[in-house]
User: Fold this.
Amino acid sequence: CSCIEMFIKSCGPVEKRYLICSGIISFLINQIVELENIKIYQIYFDLLGEVIKSNAFAFAELNYIFSSSPSKYSKFCQIIESYLINSNRFVRDILLTVYHTYNESNTINQSKYIENLGIIEVIKSSQISRFLEENQIKFLKCLLKSVNYSEIFLENLSSINTSIIFCIVALKSNSLELLLQRTFYSTQNEEDPLIHFHDLSEAQNSIHNFIELLKFWEEYYSCSPKDMKNLVFSSGIEFIYWTESVSLIVASLSELKNQKKNYCLNE
Assistant:
């Protein structure tokens, strides 16, 4: 699978379209939905994300598959929710695609990332894009609860990167403060009580944890040129914009942490 992934990363639009026409998207979705094997989830989600990332033709194919089988779409989304750590890179690739559809600057060779601007609405209105938008708070909470700054491993960087991309997309739409407020200060109407912060202290600790994770992230990538280059290549976002965004997120988190409690927390 790693060989296939390397080929996908290196192939051009023509080769990628041939790959899509060969049925690889349908194959990967079927493997995820039908096999129900947690051991393969990350492999197939990573491959699927690489195929679909910033490719409107692939999004159209994905929409067609899910529209043709609502039950398959529902099962696919359930697996993303239940195994978010395994699927988080796929989630990040979808978010990056949505980000690049709205972005007008700070990208590297934007035409490379959005293959066909004529059908860009396919990406914006796709089922999977709407699904992530509707669940962004839940997913951000889950990702942050999965990583503690006192126990960071290289494997955790993927979850941190996805958390940052959630925030970068919110920055683009001028909704970062609202996203962070709703993420850490749950209201009584929160749908899933399992991801609540049970009191103000727990919410404050989680904010502190996120700040420390972001500090670690910036230090790590600033001292790792190879990984920094890979981050920029895979995301299409200049590293300076990554760091500027992280600084803005940290500032917003620090301000939020010092605010008086405005939201009702579950007892």
Remarks:
- The two ends are 46 Å apart (CA to CA).
- Confidence is low (pLDDT under 50) at residues 104-118, 262-267.
- The chain has 16 helices and no strands.
- The first helix runs from residue 2 to 10.
